[in-house]
Structures are given as structure tokens and as C-alpha cells.
Write a structure and sequence with these properties.
Number of helices: 1
Order of helices and strands: HEEEEEEEEEEEEEEEEEEEEEEEEEEEE
Distance between the termini: 32 Å
Shape: globular
Structural class: mainly beta
Number of strands: 28
CATH class of the largest domain: Mainly Beta
Strand content: over 45%
Strand order of the largest sheet: 3-2-1-28
Length: 358
């Protein structure tokens, strides 16, 4: 009888304070460029297997996806329409559209700052970056707080762990733009120097911050390579460290990098190779950040986007040309990828975003 009463007290108390009793669940979101929708899947925490949950229609083809740090809202770039969309995420992983705002030509990449109060966007065609305010209800401000002209083919934007600096790689001018970021106002300002040149035919595309070391990794689209830069945490300046190829020297056919992701542990980093149709892996030295190639793992044709789930045990790679998603187990010992499933997800899967939802 005492046990029953205690159970009741716990349940009522949890209900009163609004604390969920169930643990967070993990969901994978796949943007489909050929169907104007985002496919939603639940992730089995033990096996990594995916189960279809929902299909969310979008006003136009969705591209890049991101979420706020608390996983309450999901944001999507609508590249062809030049717009940005905001969605509310419920505890079943389902999405409800909040609002859509005008943005600019071809918003290629979206990311929130570390507080989740601002959405930063890089524009491939409009050659700029912008900052929109995120309301408490997840809505995006109709007009951006700020827009800054940069150069053609701006391909990503992210703030560092301190939330004081932001970096924007550009595949057109072979350059990385360096900004200071004010998390109180959401405004960007040029760092000194503003531009870091990466050299001809490199094409810095996206980036990943090491979770423990002051090192930033970029994938080079044209060069098919990964490059490591040291990050000065005081000045926010990058300094080139090293560069390794992401494809075998013997491969001479058309190829280009698409995405880069770092393992939650920081021990491994991965790059998607289009043309070679593989995921290149690298071991990261835990003390120095030095890279060692782990080779390449075959995946679906044209791996434009992929994501690593939060525990670091599984990786999901979209095949833009095959309409399928490849699922891999990640060896925690050596970073090797083992393919265990393939899913038909829809026409032209573009981006994969995996998060835990409370």
C-alpha cells in the first residue's frame, strides 16, 4: 500500500511541475528535395534501426535543417524559394509549421547560435549571411536583424563553443570569412583579418568544431580534402594546420566533397565524397588534434548529407541519386563504419538531422 501511494505522489508531482517521466527519444529528419517534404523517423536506441513516424509537407523543397539546443524547434532552408521555415517539435518527433519568412536567393545552410535565440544563414547565390531572431514560440522574425554581403557561394555558418566567433566558408572565392558574434544582440562584426584564403581549387564548404580542442575542421569541395585549422580562443582567428585527401590518389574521376561531421567524442571525423560515393573517416589525436586517415567506406550514390546520432554509435548517410538512406554502426574503438541497413526515404534526400527530443 505504501508503494502504491508513493507511486501516485511521484506521478502527481511530476505532472504538477511539468517534468516528463519518459526519457528523451531520438528522431532523424530527412529533407527531400524532390518531394517538398521532410521525412521523420524514430531511432531505436539499441539497434539504430529507423521507423517512419511522419511526413511533413513544406511550402517548397527543403534543404538544410537545424534545431535549437533544447530540440524544441526545427528550422529549414527552402533553397529554391529563398525562404526560411520554422517548425515546433512535439515529444513524438512530429513537426508543426510555425511560420515562413522571406530570406534571399538560395539559403544553403542554417544554424542557431549556442543560446538558440538567433538563426544564422549562409546564402549560396545571394552571397551574404543573415541573422534572424527566434521568438520564445520558435517563430522567426519577419525581417533579419542583420544582413552582411560576403561573396559568392557562401556555404555554411556556425559559431564556436564560446559563442563569440562565427565562420563562413565559401566555395567560390576559396575563402573562410571570420566574424565576431555578440550573443546579446545577435549581431556579427568583421574580425581582423576578415578573410582567410585557402588557396586555389580548394572550395571550403562546411565545418566542424572539435568538442574539446581548439581545432576546426573544414571539408574542401573542389579539392576533395579535409583541412584542420587551429582556433585562437582569444582572438577568434584561424591558422592552417594540415590537409589530407578524402579520396584515394588513384581515383581521378569527377568528385566533390559535400558534408563534414565530427564524432561526439572528438575521436573521429567524417567527410562525404560525391562521385567516389563514399564516407571518408579520420582518427583525431585526442591531445594534438592531428589527423590520420581511416580510408573510405562505400555508401549510396551522391552522399550529399549525413549525420551522426547523439551517442555516436550510428551514422546515417543520404544518397541523393538513389533516393535511399544508408545506416552504419560506428566502431567506438577505431571509427570504422559497418553498414547494417538501407532505407527507401523518397526522392532526392538532401539533408539528415538527428536529435534527441525531450
Amino acid at each position: 500500500m505504501r508503494f502504491t501511494i508513493l507511486q501516485s505522489v511521484v506521478v502527481v508531482s511530476a505532472w504538477l511541475v511539468g517534468t516528463p517521466i519518459s526519457e528523451a527519444r531520438e528522431f532523424a529528419y530527412v529533407s527531400l528535395d524532390g518531394e517538398n517534404r521532410i521525412a521523420v523517423y524514430s531511432v531505436d536506441e539499441s539497434s539504430g534501426e529507423l521507423t517512419a513516424v511522419a511526413n511533413v509537407e513544406t511550402p517548397s523543397p527543403p534543404g538544410g535543417l537545424t534545431s535549437d539546443p533544447k530540440s524544441q524547434f526545427l528550422f529549414a532552408s527552402l533553397r529554391r524559394a529563398g525562404k526560411l521555415a520554422s517548425f515546433r517539435i512535439n515529444n513524438e518527433g512530429e513537426l508543426t509549421l510555425i511560420n515562413v519568412v522571406e530570406a534571399g536567393a538560395d539559403p544553403a545552410y542554417v544554424a542557431t547560435d549556442r543560446t538558440g535565440r538567433f538563426l544564422l544563414t549562409a546564402y549560396y547565390v545571394a552571397a551574404k549571411v543573415s541573422v534572424h531572431r527566434i521568438g520564445e514560440d520558435g517563430s522567426l522574425s519577419e525581417k533579419p536583424i542583420q544582413e552582411i554581403a560576403t561573396d559568392t557561394k557562401a556555404h555554411a555558418i556556425m559559431t564556436d563553443a564560446s559563442n563569440r566567433f562565427a565562420f563562413v566558408p565559401h566555395t567560390g572565392p576559396n575563402a573562410i570569412y571570420q566574424f565576431r558574434f555578440d550573443e546579446k544582440t545577435g549581431r556579427l562584426s568583421p574580425n581582423d583579418p576578415l578573410i582567410v584564403s585557402t588557396g586555389a581549387n580548394t572550395g571550403p564548404r562546411q565545418l566542424a568544431f572539435h568538442p574539446k580542442l581548439d581545432v576546426v575542421f573544414f571539408d574542401y569541395e573542389q579539392a576533395c580534402a579535409i583541412a584542420a585549422f587551429d582556433l585562437n580562443r582569444r582572438s577568434g582567428r584561424l591558422a592552417f594546420r594540415e590537409r589530407l585527401s578524402s579520396v584515394p590518389d588513384s581515383f581521378k574521376e569527377t568528385r566533390s566533397n559535400a558534408r563534414i561531421e565530427i564524432h561526439p567524442s572528438g575521436n573521429f571525423v567524417y567527410v562525404a565524397n560525391r562521385g567516389h560515393n563514399s564516407i571518408a573517416g579520420y582518427r583525431v589525436d585526442s591531445e594534438t588534434g592531428k589527423l590520420t586517415s581511416l580510408g573510405q567506406t562505400p555508401t549510396e550514390p551522391t552522399p550529399r548529407g549525413f549525420a551522426i546520432e547523439s551517442s555516436g554509435r550510428f551514422l546515417y548517410a543520404a544518397g541523393q541519386s538513389s533516393d535511399r538512406l544508408a545506416a552504419f554502426r560506428i566502431s567506438q574503438k577505431n571509427g570504422t563504419l559497418y553498414r547494417f541497413a538501407t532505407y527507401d526515404v523518397g526522392k532526392q534526400p538532401w539533408w539528415v538531422h538527428v536529435i534527441q527530443v525531450p
